[in-house]
Specification:
With 189 residues, the protein is mainly alpha-helical. The chain has helices at residues 4-22, 26-35, 39-66, 84-100, 109-130, 133-138, 149-164, 168-188; strands at residues 2-3, 72-73, 76-77, 80-81. Strand 3 (76-77) and strand 4 form a beta hairpin. The chain is globular and about 60 Å long. Helix 1 packs antiparallel against helix 3 (39-66) and helix 3 runs antiparallel to helix 7 (149-164). The chain has a two-stranded parallel ribbon with strand order 1-2. It has a two-stranded antiparallel ribbon with strand order 3-4.
């Protein structure tokens, strides 16, 4: 049997690495910086992408676990169930501490990497935390009950705020144009 929390943590680490790797490719990096010119908007964009993907992974794993569809189980410490909210809070504490130390605030390649890393981790930690918003409100596990719907509402609201505050639309259009032109050139060759 696999612990769902360990799989979720592994997924977050893998997803973080994949996002950072994708944004290191020359074409993506150039479009990203050109189409989202402000560094703060780029951080918001990365956080929003990470938030959406980690939320989808967390909900999927929770659903599969709840319906006993896989070899997953919950993690317990001395008979106490540890919600993924706890891991989200720990990630957010780490990111907050990193930002207090001004990690990613400079203009060096290392700072740009740290800025992107902190942004992706912020989105991931927020997804894990906001996904269990109903737990905050009710102080009891209502994840799959009607009261748990509040968590989905919170996720939708937070996602809307993130996406509304960034200029990712320009980046995705430019990315589509570039890949369309690459496809056209290959078809013509």
């Amino acid at each position: 049997m696999f612990d769902r929390t360990i799989l979720l943590a592994f997924s977050v680490v893998l997803l973080t690495g994949a996002i950072l790797l994708v944004f290191r490719t020359p074409l993506i990096r150039e479009l990203f910086v050109r189409e989202i010119p402000h560094r703060s908007q780029r951080r918001l964009f990365l956080a929003a992408v990470s938030f959406a993907l980690v939320f989808a992974i967390a909900r999927t794993l929770a659903y599969v676990n709840f319906h006993h569809m896989g070899p997953f189980h919950d993690i317990y410490v001395r008979c106490l169930y540890v919600h993924h909210l706890v891991w989200g809070i720990l990630v957010l504490l780490f990111v907050g501490y990193g930002w207090l130390l001004d990690a990613g605030g400079g203009a060096t390649p290392r700072s740009f990497f740290l800025s992107r890393l902190m942004s992706v981790l912020y989105g991931a930690g927020t997804a894990l935390t906001v996904d269990e918003f109903a737990l905050w409100l009710n102080l009891e596990d209502v994840y799959w009950s009607p009261e748990g719907r509040v968590s989905i509402d919170a996720v939708i609201l937070f996602s809307a705020v993130l996406w509304a505050s960034i200029g990712g639309r320009r980046f995705f259009r430019a990315l589509g144009r570039e890949y369309f032109h690459i496809f056209e050139r290959r078809q013509g060759a």
